[in-house]
Amino acid sequence: MSFIAVFIWSFVLWLVLTAGSKGLLWSPEELAAGLIFSGVIALTTKDIIGEKAARFLNPAKWVGFVIYAIGPLFWGMVKANLDVAYRVITGRIKPGIVRVPVDLENDAQYTILSNSITLTPGTLTIDACPEEKALYVHWINVTEKEPKSSEVIAGSFEKWARRLGR
Questions:
Q1: Residues 56, 111: contact at Cβ < 8 Å?
Q2: pLDDT at 53
């Protein structure tokens, strides 16, 4: 099942990245190349990704990701961009690395939360420690040296990561 999941995701990504040449969405050569590359990628990564990748084939998950991307993630990025711009202009920064406790259950949830934090300007996930149930994050403006939850840095991202990564 992981082969199918990776193949579909790779092919969809290929289609998105190659769309729109010469009046056609895709030429036959582009489709053939996409099928070949997607097959090669799926074969080489099926043991790395594992069986749980199939859960991301559920269209309801796709809708959830879209809602998350255009809602909370986008809004978090807008707020963070404004905050970073303010800090650059005023020079008021207190950078540091903080340990952020999280309540996540699997690698997919850690990946979603880590990427969301890293995509948000002013923060960068350095390490994920599932055994400690924590993330280590470089933060441009440390307001709490030992946060009690991820809410301070990630807002509602952790809640969404738990929901989307099940």
A1: no
A2: 62
